[in-house]
Amino acid sequence: MQEVRDILQRAIQELKTEGLEPDILLVGPGFLKHSAEFLSQCGLKIYRIEELGYDAVVADSKYLGQIKRASRRISVEPLLEENKMWEEIKRLEV
Hints:
Elements: H1 2-17, E1 24-27, H2 29-39, E2 45-48, E3 55-59, E4 71-75, H3 77-92
Parallel strand pairs: 1-2
Antiparallel strand pairs: 1-3, 3-4
């Protein structure tokens, strides 16, 4: 999914802009399912966390838990819902 890749890259860039060095990605199984093909190319250490579900957290591990802005949480679930809605609309069109 190109949209998920774009969101992830944007979160990484936001952290870098703030002077942080994102180096880890915590991913839920739902997020992993929809982004596995490009995660190996993101350059971050990836950890699967069951409790995250369809979400992922990009973080600078040196500051994670110390300062709130050291991470960004992103979710694939809204994109899936939006795609599902558009598919239903297309199906209704005659």
